[in-house]
Amino acid sequence: MAAPVPWACCAVLAAAAAVVYAQRHSPQETPHVQYKRLGSDVTLPCGTANWDAAVTWRVNGTDLAPDLLNGSQLVLRGLELGHSGVYACFHRDSWHLRHQVLLNVGLPPREPVLSCRSNTYPKGFYCSWHLPTPTYIPNTFNVTVLHGSKIMVCEKDPALKNRCHIRYMHLFSTVKYKVSISVSNALGHNATAITFDEFTIVKPDPPENVVARPVPSNPRRLEVTWQTPSTWPDPESFPLKFFLRYRPLILDQWQHVELSDGTAHTITDAYAGKEYIIQVAAKDNEIGTWSDWSVAAHATPWTEEPRHLTTEAQAPETTTSTTSSLAPPPTTKICDPGELGSGGGPSAPFFISVLVTLALAAAAAAAGSLLI
Amino acid sequence: MDLRAGDSWGMLACLCAVLWHLPAVPALNRTGDPGPGPSIQKTYDLTRYLEHQLRSLAGTYLNYLGPPFNEPDFNPPRLGAETLPRATVNLEVWRSLNDRLRLTQNYEAYSHLLCYLRGLNRQAATAELRRSLAHFCTSLQGLLGSIAGVMAALGYPLPQPLPGTEPTWTPGPAHSDFLQKMDDFWLLKELQTWLWRSAKDFNRLKKKMQPPAAAVTLHLEAHGF
């Protein structure tokens, strides 16, 4: 009689497991997703429950106050971003989960900002976009490129989500390009478009590897070198011209130099001993606009090594000792008018120097009369 | 030989005439030839000058045509103006053009465009417009001459227009005033685009020519001087 008992046990266990499984994976357990607009009001019904059913609501596992309930429905007014979450309603007595809602509070998209640029002329151009204000919920973008009546493919950038690339098939076109973008999310949609000529969007990347070096034995020179941007595909047929700007760190005013070719320049009017900041920009020779300024290079012009102080003090003594015993003590300055009005101290040396001058003048007059 | 004052002026005039026709003279003994480099540079500079001139001319002319032609966003479909030489070209085709073809395309384009411009000049309503257009036509003629010089220096023959294919400026019978203005719009647009293209064309040619460092000695066949 042992055989039927294990069979019955298995059957009961299997049934129990099935019920538990059904309860855990019942349809109302996968949350129903809802998107609601910021600031609006929402009423969440508890699935198919009657209005007067006894339920408790929880958000992300935390109980909600019963005053938010309208019967078995949850009422939320003036939705804020913090209201986003998983809302669940349970049968009050059995704690049986009846319904789940994943609420996302967000905004419909505003008009997107779209811009296109060719930093790889003549290979192609890219367009990038963004929303001026966040929506807080997922958005999808759709970009279309028209050249006259022909649709062109805009390939998604592998790294950046909001950029795509178009390859030029034809150059020197008189027909404009029109790029349109539409953005949509669960709460609304928006769109914009821009139209442009092939030449107007050309803007190279800034020059690379800008290096500034002092020039030995030249205290007012700085040698600057740079490279054409590596993204510019054909500098031979599409040469770039450059714009250099420099200033000492202590001043605000920039000096500018425009260079039609070459990737080097020597600054010849630098202030001696002052640290300089230097930047370079690039532009196609004929079309488009200037690039952004490059990463700044810093340099200070060459300065002479200062001489030892003791040798300077000895030199004036040997020359003044022969003129007069009233010679003023050796000073580094020959004449400083500022010292004259400053009171008693400096007046003594001044008086002595006047005497010396008069003595010398008298001696010169005497010598002159002797020679006649 | 005893030279008198009158003879030297005659000599000078003759010399000027010879030098003027220099590009067309096929056989010229030159030692230390600088190559076509300087004349390519000159042609390039001319395209830049013309492009600059065209900007103010086009602005004035489009204002004369009135809206929508003078609106910056004006983006009409390319209808009509089928006989206008188009600057647009496939990127790879443009890259692989040989020098002769590159120069020929430029020369033919400007010949046609000049002819159309002259027609435009005849139709222009104000004296100021006619003056500006006439000035531009003269400059464009100079560009054509410069391109011809480069072609001659490289030994390429000038393209001869086939009889009957010369563009003539006759307004079509069904041409409305608006369609006429559209044609004018496309003419100026195409001209501007050609000038940008030519700058790039001549850049490419410049890079391919190697100007030698040696000085130029020009030997002229001087008869009777």
TrEMBL record, chain A:
<keyword id="KW-0472">Membrane</keyword>
<dbReference type="Pfam" id="PF00041">
    <property type="entry name" value="fn3"/>
</dbReference>
<dbReference type="InterPro" id="IPR036179">
    <property type="entry name" value="Ig-like_dom_sf"/>
</dbReference>
<keyword id="KW-0732">Signal</keyword>
<protein>
    <recommendedName>
        <fullName>Ciliary neurotrophic factor receptor subunit alpha</fullName>
    </recommendedName>
</protein>
<dbReference type="GO" id="GO:0097059">
    <property type="term" value="C:CNTFR-CLCF1 complex"/>
</dbReference>
<keyword id="KW-0325">Glycoprotein</keyword>
<keyword id="KW-0677">Repeat</keyword>
<keyword id="KW-0675">Receptor</keyword>
<dbReference type="InterPro" id="IPR050379">
    <property type="entry name" value="Type-I_Cytokine_Rcpt"/>
</dbReference>
<dbReference type="GO" id="GO:0004921">
    <property type="term" value="F:interleukin-11 receptor activity"/>
</dbReference>
<feature type="domain" description="Ig-like">
    <location>
        <begin position="27"/>
        <end position="89"/>
    </location>
</feature>
<dbReference type="GO" id="GO:0009897">
    <property type="term" value="C:external side of plasma membrane"/>
</dbReference>
<dbReference type="GO" id="GO:0019970">
    <property type="term" value="F:interleukin-11 binding"/>
</dbReference>
<keyword id="KW-0393">Immunoglobulin domain</keyword>
<keyword id="KW-1015">Disulfide bond</keyword>
<feature type="signal peptide">
    <location>
        <begin position="1"/>
        <end position="22"/>
    </location>
</feature>
<feature type="transmembrane region" description="Helical">
    <location>
        <begin position="350"/>
        <end position="371"/>
    </location>
</feature>
<feature type="compositionally biased region" description="Low complexity">
    <location>
        <begin position="311"/>
        <end position="326"/>
    </location>
</feature>
<dbReference type="InterPro" id="IPR007110">
    <property type="entry name" value="Ig-like_dom"/>
</dbReference>
<comment type="similarity">
    <text>Belongs to the type I cytokine receptor family. Type 3 subfamily.</text>
</comment>
<keyword id="KW-0449">Lipoprotein</keyword>
Automatic annotation (TrEMBL), chain B:
<keyword id="KW-0964">Secreted</keyword>
<dbReference type="InterPro" id="IPR010681">
    <property type="entry name" value="PRF/CT"/>
</dbReference>
<dbReference type="GO" id="GO:0048295">
    <property type="term" value="P:positive regulation of isotype switching to IgE isotypes"/>
</dbReference>
<dbReference type="GO" id="GO:0007259">
    <property type="term" value="P:cell surface receptor signaling pathway via JAK-STAT"/>
</dbReference>
<dbReference type="GO" id="GO:0048711">
    <property type="term" value="P:positive regulation of astrocyte differentiation"/>
</dbReference>
<dbReference type="InterPro" id="IPR009079">
    <property type="entry name" value="4_helix_cytokine-like_core"/>
</dbReference>
<comment type="function">
    <text>In complex with CRLF1, forms a heterodimeric neurotropic cytokine that plays a crucial role during neuronal development. Also stimulates B-cells. Binds to and activates the ILST/gp130 receptor.</text>
</comment>
<dbReference type="GO" id="GO:0043524">
    <property type="term" value="P:negative regulation of neuron apoptotic process"/>
</dbReference>
<dbReference type="GO" id="GO:0030183">
    <property type="term" value="P:B cell differentiation"/>
</dbReference>
<protein>
    <recommendedName>
        <fullName>Cardiotrophin-like cytokine factor 1</fullName>
    </recommendedName>
</protein>
<keyword id="KW-0202">Cytokine</keyword>
<dbReference type="GO" id="GO:0097059">
    <property type="term" value="C:CNTFR-CLCF1 complex"/>
</dbReference>
<keyword id="KW-0732">Signal</keyword>
<comment type="subunit">
    <text>Forms a heteromeric complex with cardiotrophin-like cytokine CRLF1/CLF-1; the CRLF1-CLCF1 complex is a ligand for the ciliary neurotrophic factor receptor/CNTFR. The CRLF1-CLCF1 heterodimer binds SORL1 (via N-terminal ectodomain); within this complex, the interaction is mediated predominantly by the CRLF1 moiety. The tripartite signaling complex formed by CRLF1, CLCF1 and CNTFR also binds SORL1.</text>
</comment>
<dbReference type="GO" id="GO:0005615">
    <property type="term" value="C:extracellular space"/>
</dbReference>
<dbReference type="GO" id="GO:0005127">
    <property type="term" value="F:ciliary neurotrophic factor receptor binding"/>
</dbReference>
<dbReference type="GO" id="GO:0030890">
    <property type="term" value="P:positive regulation of B cell proliferation"/>
</dbReference>
<feature type="signal peptide">
    <location>
        <begin position="1"/>
        <end position="27"/>
    </location>
</feature>
<dbReference type="GO" id="GO:0097058">
    <property type="term" value="C:CRLF-CLCF1 complex"/>
</dbReference>
<dbReference type="GO" id="GO:0005125">
    <property type="term" value="F:cytokine activity"/>
</dbReference>
<dbReference type="Pfam" id="PF06875">
    <property type="entry name" value="PRF"/>
</dbReference>
<comment type="similarity">
    <text>Belongs to the IL-6 superfamily.</text>
</comment>
